[in-house]
């Protein structure tokens, strides 16, 4: 887990700071959360999810994305994100972190990621065991107000009000979204034209 995670994560029930341990996290109101085998925390609240309604990408989609990204196809995007983020003096949050690719391109000591897909968070935690990953909602970030130096959202949801809430004054905010011609060069190949 990153060194600043205990000053960043908030209880998704009451919003109080979470105290982290090797086995989980608790707040002053005794809400508790266990760590997964990979060290990740599930901070997604709001009802039970069945296998049929599990949100986010499937493990197969995540594995395919990891192969695609690992082949360097989006390296220019990752490099541009790293350049804009720079070297912040505090924690960096990747919202919609997926399998951890973009966060892995940032050689920073205090990284953490959030995704709604538990399988994505587990993959990211295996890739970056020195960072903290949580299952949670981008629309209700389990993050303390003004606690992060940079927020990333690369091809992921970007609820601006939540990002403003969690950013430190002067913090960096990086959003990458697809344009109208995104992947246009690949369409003929994929459709067989």
Write the layout of secondary structure elements.
Elements: E1 19-20, E2 24-26, E3 32-34, E4 41-42, H1 59-70, H2 75-85, E5 92-95, H3 101-104, E6 111-115, H4 118-127, E7 132-135, E8 148-154, H5 160-166, E9 167-176, H6 187-191
Question: How would you portray this structure in words?
Answer:
- The chain has 193 residues and is α/β, with parallel strands linked by helices.
- It has one domain: Vaccinia Virus protein VP39 (Rossmann fold).
- The strands form 2 sheets. It has a 6-stranded parallel sheet with strand order 4-7-6-5-8-9.
- A hairpin with a 5-residue loop joins strand 2 and strand 3.
- It is globular and about 60 Å long.
- About 3% of the residues have low confidence.
Supply the CATH superfamily name: Vaccinia Virus protein VP39
3D shape: globular
Rg: 17 Å
Low-confidence stretches: 48-52
Short description:
This protein is an alpha/beta fold. The protein has helices at residues 59-70, 75-85, 101-104, 118-127, 160-166, 187-191, and strands at 19-20, 24-26, 32-34, 41-42, 92-95, 111-115, 132-135, 148-154, 167-176. It has 6 helices and 9 strands.
Q: What distinguishing features does this structure have?
A:
193 residues, alpha/beta, Rossmann fold, three-stranded antiparallel beta sheet, 9 strands
């Amino acid at each position: 887990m990153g060194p600043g995670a205990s000053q960043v994560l908030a209880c998704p029930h009451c919003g109080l700071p979470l105290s982290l341990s090797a086995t989980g996290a608790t707040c002053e109101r005794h809400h508790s959360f266990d760590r997964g085998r990979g060290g990740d925390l599930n901070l997604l609240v709001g009802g039970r999810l069945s296998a049929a309604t599990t949100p986010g990408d499937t493990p197969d989609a995540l594995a395919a994305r990891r192969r695609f990204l690992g082949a360097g196809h989006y390296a220019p995007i990752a490099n541009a994100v790293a350049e804009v983020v720079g070297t912040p003096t505090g924690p960096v949050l990747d919202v919609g972190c997926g399998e951890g690719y973009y966060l892995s391109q940032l050689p920073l000591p205090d990284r953490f990621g959030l995704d709604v897909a538990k399988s994505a968070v587990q993959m990211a935690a295996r890739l970056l065991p020195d960072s903290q990953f949580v299952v949670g909602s981008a629309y209700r970030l389990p993050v303390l107000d003004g606690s992060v130096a940079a927020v990333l959202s690369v091809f992921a949801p970007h609820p601006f009000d939540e990002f403003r809430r969690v950013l430190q004054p002067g913090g960096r905010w990086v959003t990458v979204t697809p344009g109208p011609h995104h992947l246009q060069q690949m369409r003929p190949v994929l459709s067989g034209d």
